[in-house]
Amino acid sequence: MCIFFDFLLHSNKIDDIPDEIFDARTQRLDTGLVHLQSEHIDGTKYYFLRPKNVPNAPFEVVFTSAPTVVEVLRRQWGLDFFGLVRELLDRGMQFKTCITGTLTQPPAPLTLRFPGLGYRPPNYKPDVIDYDVYQHIRDEFLNSLRGCAALLHGGIVSRLAKHVVHYQHVFDGPTPDVMSSGSLIPGQSVGYWDDALTEHEINVICGVYKVDTDWRALSTQTTDVFWWPKLSAWAAAGFNVGYWSEDCERWFQNHLNKICEGQFQLRSLSAWKNGLRFNQSTAKVVAKNNK
Question: What pTM, to 2 d.p., does this model score?
Answer without folding.
Answer: 0.82
